[in-house]
Amino acid sequence: MKSEKIIFFSYFCCRNMRTAIIGGGAAGFFLAVNLKEMLPEMDVTIFERSKRVLAKVEVSGGGRCNCTNSFAQVSDLSQVYPRGHRLMKRLFHVFNQEDTYGWFERHAVHLVTQDDECVFPQTQDSHAVINCFLSLARRYHINIYTGRKIQSLDELGGYDYVAVTTGGSPKGEGLRWLAALGHEIEAPVPSLFTFSIADDRLHAMQGLVVENAAAFIPGTKYRAEGPLLITHWGMSGPAILKLSSYAARHLADNLYHAPLSINWIQQREEDIQRALYEMSIREAQKLLATCNPFGLQQRLWSYLLEKALDQRATLRWCELNKKNVNRLVNILMNDTYQIVGRAAFKDEFVTCGGVSLKAVNPSTLESRHVPHLFFAGEVLDIDGITGGFNFQAAWTTAYTIAQSIAKNQ
Q1: Cα–Cα distance between 382 and 406 in angstroms, integer?
Q2: CA 111 – CA 104 distance, rounded (Å)
Q3: Is the entire prediction scored with pTM above 0.85?
Q4: β partners of residue 235
Q5: Among 389, 377, 1, 402, which residue's Cα sits nearest to residue 174?
Q6: Alpha carbon of 333 to those of 76, 272, 327, 343: distances in Å?
Q7: Which of 35, 118, 200, 203 is most buried per CB count within 10 Å?
Q8: pLDDT in tens, 221-245
């Protein structure tokens, strides 16, 4: 390993105060701008493989760019970073969500925190962030080359530092050259995706939203809560997206075929039984389908009645016996489905895996194998649930690198 370091150090021995950033996404631009603000004399160049920079930022958050999160409802970072939470906790001492808020405000991107603690530009437009980065890049004379796919350090002779901010690599091709340099790679698999479920009756309720459901995979620790959206292919919404993140590797290992359970109302069993009993007295002569004690949408309530009671769904409330009550309680708390695949969309696709955190210095994010080579953003084995947490990881890791390089001068 020692001889390997000597060989690769030759790429960075010119000491011309030049930094190359491979990747023109959120982490790449944030690193470039902060590096120029810390070291104005540094020559910084961004190499982007596609024809456009910041394309993922543009479509993020439905085109609004969920910049970060207030973290007000987060008691432990493992809740929002299924992979990388220990490193993120350490790096938050360098740059956290409050620093992010202040940074954007200072750079004239005014932010607003929603009731769900997600933070967006006040304009509700991702171009506020994009225009900020591009404007700063022009002001600081940051070089930007598009259509440049870098796959070897041989292509970057003359740079003192190189930072890789290429984002996720779903099929792993973009990680092979890094593996060849000795970096351990955690196999990339999708995260933050929706579930395909083969149930035509469920699909018929597409567009229906349950505001506070819980989704979990039976027999595992994987569970998520929040709004749930029924779609024409299955289920989506924050509860499902979070669950897909927590269970990303489990689902990949099972080829995206797994049981799924839904708790539709998130109440205690005894409270549900009591509500059903009281309804059977108060609305004794009414049909079960005409009223329900849980405020569920009529389409969903009728669907659950038929699923739980079959032909008995046409009963009156006074005809509900103990066995039927137990069936209703079970369907409300533990409604079961079968995941038969995943549906991926560019605006909600994140990769679990990447350069192993064992391959980098946890304080500087410098490679343990190649001096002056750094990693930021999703190329690392760090990923978060939906809600602005992945962008926060990009800002935090990028700022850490900028500070690391600045301290090295």
Answers
A1: 24
A2: 8
A3: yes
A4: 195, 230
A5: 377
A6: 26, 9, 10, 25
A7: 35
A8: 999 999 999 999 999 999 999 999 9
